[in-house]
Design brief:
Number of helices: 8
Number of strands: 5
Strand content: 5-15%
Order of helices and strands: HHEEEEEHHHHHH
Shape: elongated
Largest sheet: 5 strands, antiparallel
Helix content: 40-55%
Structural class: alpha+beta
CATH architecture of the largest domain: Alpha-Beta Complex
Length: 195
């Protein structure tokens, strides 16, 4: 098996990583050995198959992880996949706290990547929950500004959900109204909450 070529942008990412540098390097090698294309997306090493995102490497304070973009479709025969938050529908992580953990799981990780590649080859898609609870304050703005409703509906389901969750988390209606008001122009520009 030949490794895929390394991307210089990922070289730079790794050289600038203060935490998890060895772990990132090992995860990178595992992904490249699975003949995925290495890219830098969202500021993180991302590995693709025929331009489809398969797995991403990222790090947090307490762990680093492989994030499988369609992890919800994987069998998870070893019970390793973690749903990052209750609102994440498709992606799943396998988390690590040391390079030793990664080395011990190398063959298992390659099996997960191979399965994720098969998901892409089969053209499988995650079925997202369509129903999104629109907060009353946002619905009121839709009634005032028809273009806002159109712009909101053209956002991806994930972006719509992110806005609705953020707006809804405020306890007081006044705060929800202020949040909606703050993001009107961003929604009209077709941007997500964190874009």
């Amino acid at each position: 098996m030949t490794n895929s070529p390394m991307n210089p942008k990922v070289d730079e990412f790794l050289s600038n990583s203060k935490q998890w540098q060895k772990e990132f390097g090992k995860l990178r090698n595992i992904a490249l050995e699975c003949e995925l294309t290495e890219e830098l997306k969202w500021g993180k090493p991302c590995y693709t198959f025929q331009n489809k995102n398969v797995v991403l490497i990222h790090g947090f304070k307490d762990y680093c992880a492989f994030l499988f973009h369609k992890g919800a479709l994987l069998k998870d025969s070893h019970g390793l996949l973690v749903q990052q938050t209750e609102n994440v529908q498709a992606a799943r992580q396998i988390r690590f706290k040391s390079i030793k953990e990664i080395e011990e799981m190398e063959f298992i990780l390659k099996d997960y990547i191979d399965e994720a590649i098969e998901v892409e080859k089969a053209g499988l898609e995650v079925e997202y929950k369509k129903e999104i609870d629109i907060p009353e304050e946002l619905q009121n703005k839709f009634n005032e500004i028809s273009e806002l409703k159109t712009a909101f509906e053209s956002l991806t389901p994930g972006r719509q959900r992110a806005y609705c969750l953020y707006f809804s988390k405020a306890k007081q209606s006044k705060t929800r109204e202020a949040r909606v008001e703050k993001y009107i122009s961003q929604i009209l520009d077709g941007k997500g909450l964190n874009d």
